[in-house]
Amino acid sequence: MNFDSGNVGVLLGNGDGTFQPAVTYGGADGAGTPSVAVADVNGDGKLDLMVVNFCVDKNCDGGIGVFLGNGDGTFRPESVFVSGGYYAWALAVADVNGDGKPDLVAANLQLSVSKPLKGFVGVLLNNTSFSKSTTSTSLTSSLNPSIYGQKVTWTATVTSSGSIIPTGKVNFTWSGHTIGSATLSSGVATLTRSNLNADPYPLTAVYTGDANNLRSTSAVLNQVVLETTSAATLSSSPNLSTQGQAVTFTAKISSPTVIPTGPVTFTAGKTVLGTAQLGGGEAKLAISSLPVGSTKVTATYYGDSNIAKSSASVIQTVH
Is 166 in contact with 213 (CB distance < 8 Å)? Predict the structure, then answer.
């Protein structure tokens, strides 16, 4: 920016830390350009220049000059938008009304011989009709079918018919339920979960769109989560006990993908001796009422819809 000459200079980079000679773009309605900003204000995927046109008298509007970009480092002639005062000084670019379009905010000075110095802000809302690009979303799974408790990563890839890479979020859904969302990075969003119940899931990835790209939904990916297995072992202590002596039975339930929880039932034949809750994969039950002789004691873990049933037995001898 050049305050005295009233123009803005553009020095294109060579990619090695050096720059080409400056190409200047003159402000048609100001004597100085104390502030400059760069943004795509018309939604064509090309960066544009916005400059403050600082006025030195009352014969100009002192507004914001906009040079639309050609996409090759050059810019079209200036269009001027009045910012509310003939002493515009500073400029900022932001989407102040949340419509996905960059707006302009100018700091203005109002000078008068007969009145005190005034400072105020001018807001120029962007009313450009952006033409958004269509998108296409694909969805893949890292493991299908998977087993309950296994980590599965789903990858959504969003491509655009335009030149601007899609940004924003992707929601991963099935039958109206959202299992999670992720933010796009270079057009790719991933979600990892390990706690989906054993069931089939008709998953879709829904891209919500952004200021330059329309929303899109992937084809259905039928993710299948299978029930995991469990294995049981049972031990007793002491074994070779005396009548009336307390014997502790310890059941251990394991699974390849999760730590099982829930109750374990201890039986002798058809007689239920008691139940105990698993903690850290173990359930213990102390019994002192076993008869003299050899008794087969069985521990059964019935599991649930996510974990399969398993059982184990031990022969307890009582003198």
Answer: yes
pTM, rounded to two decimals: 0.62
In sign, the C-alpha dihedral spanning 95, 96, 97, 103 is negative
Above 50 in pLDDT, residue 250?
yes
Per-residue pLDDT, averaged over 100-106, amounts to 85
